[in-house]
Amino acid sequence: MRHGRNFNHLGRDCDHRKALLKNLSISLIKNKRICTTLAKAKELRKFVEPILTSSKDDSMSSRRLVFSKLMNKEAVKELFNNISSVITDRPGGYTRIIKTGNRYGDNAKMCFIELVDYGYNEKNKVQRNKQD
Predict the structure, then answer these.
(1) CA–CA separation, 64 vs 130, rounded Å?
(2) What digits encode the pLDDT tens for the residues 72-124?
(3) Which one of 37, 41, 69, 93 has the fewest CB atoms closer than 10 angstroms to its CB?
(4) What is the spatial distance between Cα 105 and Cα 73, in angstroms, rounded to a whole number?
(5) Domain that holds residue 63
């Protein structure tokens, strides 16, 4: 029975799940957009949005808090130097999930998860091409 099961365990134990979400969030911060399964993206959103919120305040305590979650110096530098200045005006909702269909091998639902303010959607690609 699934009584009290409030989040998706992703078929992993606690340590493996934490490592997975940590690695996915580091990749999202570095690349601004990643392709993953829909279940992982939904759990990643819950994990990374509080980190992005705490990065808006550039203090030593918030840097330490973010580093304790990510454990990656390059990702923390990227987050506080570049991303936090872009998301300061946004009150929340820093990520976007774009469904892309099913994976060929196992028919898993696939999607892109991206940072909203780094417009990678098709509409912006068309506008950028017209400007060039």
Answers:
(1) 43
(2) 999 999 999 999 999 999 999 999 999 999 999 999 999 999 999 886 655 55
(3) 93
(4) 35
(5) 14-131
Q: Where are the beta strands (DSSP E) in 3-126?
A: 33-37, 95-102, 109-115
pLDDT for residue 33? 95
- Asked whether residue 58 is assigned to any structural domain, the reply reads yes
Higher-confidence position of 75 and 129: 75
Per residue in 60-74, pLDDT tens? Answer: 999 999 999 999 999
Q: What is the CATH number of the domain that holds 60?
A: 3.90.1030.10
Q: How far apart are CA 18 and CA 71, in angstroms?
A: 12
Residue 126 lies in a domain: yes
Please state, in angstroms and rounded to a whole number, the distance separating the CA atoms of residues 33 and 125: 14
pLDDT of residue 40: 97
The total domain count for the chain is 1
What one-letter code names the amino acid at 72?
N
CA 90, 95, 97, 98: dihedral to nearest 10 degrees?
70
Q: Is residue 6 domain-resident?
A: no
DSSP 106: T
